[in-house]
Amino acid sequence: MSKTIMAIGGHVGDMELTTGCVLAHQALKGDKIVTMALTAGERGNPKDVPVSEYRKQKVREAEEFARMLKGEAIVFDYPDGELPDNEKVRFEVAAAIRKYRPNIIFTHWKNSMHKDHANCHKIVVDAAFLAAVYDGDKLEGEKAWAPVYFAENWEDREGFDPYIYVNCGDGYELWTEAIKKHWFIMNSPSFRYYDYYTHLTYVRGCLAKYKHAQCFNVFGYQKFTKMEL
């Protein structure tokens, strides 16, 4: 039976990099993939591209990545660097969870050098709870629950424990082609995103005895449960 997997990041590109190999692997198995970015990440714009235009480009890149995985991309309107930590955005994410009814949710680890990542973590954890239990006029739709797992990101390293290793070998080629659609992954002057994340799948794969793997952290109580894809 096919599953629905949601990957929710602070910016377009965050989840495509940190969970994208797994998403591609599962897409090839017939699972539905939904990526969600709470901001577009537009302030990493090339020098010759205005922020407003780069935002449009980032949305297109998110959509192209999702299309290649036969999935769906959602990009919220919050400005890059200004993701609010409030009730409104929590209910917006909770509404999406109820709409798509994922079996699994991926998002950021709680500690990060980027406040959008840290806020995204708190928002998603709370939204998953609201989607599962809230019964009131702020949220429509049937209640839905999914476990939340936290992706490995170079900006979110503090306290990250690579607890779960997920095989993504079958999706590696599709993933590497899909992430090439993102300008910053291939052209950023500040970090070699493509090299780092593609090589990391080999490293995690060696440890897990797969050809390629991506790893995820969990809260302590989740260490007594199973993860199945």
- From the coordinates shown, what is the CATH architecture? 3-Layer(aba) Sandwich
Helix content: 40-55%
Whole-angstrom Rg: 16 Å
Shape summary? globular
CATH fold topology: Rossmann fold
Strand order, main sheet: write it out.
3-2-1-4-5-7-6
Q: How many H/I helices? A: 8
Element pattern in H and E: EHHEHEHEHEEHHHE
Q: What is the CATH class designation? A: Alpha Beta
In total, the number of strands is: 7
Major beta sheet summary? 7 strands, mixed
CATH superfamily: LmbE-like
What proportion of the residues form beta strands (DSSP E)? Answer: 15-25%
Give the N-to-C terminal Cα separation.
11 Å
The number of domains is 1
Short description:
With 229 residues, this protein is α/β, with parallel strands linked by helices. It has helices at residues 14-18, 20-28, 51-68, 87-100, 115-133, 172-179, 183-187, 193-208; strands at 4-9, 32-39, 72-78, 104-108, 148-151, 164-167, 213-217. β4 (104-108), α5 (115-133) and β5 (148-151) form a beta-alpha-beta unit.
Describe how the helices and strands are arranged.
Layout: E1 4-9, H1 14-18, H2 20-28, E2 32-39, H3 51-68, E3 72-78, H4 87-100, E4 104-108, H5 115-133, E5 148-151, E6 164-167, H6 172-179, H7 183-187, H8 193-208, E7 213-217
Parallel strand pairs: 1-2, 1-4, 2-3, 4-5
Antiparallel strand pairs: 5-7, 6-7
Helix pairs in contact: 2-6, 4-5
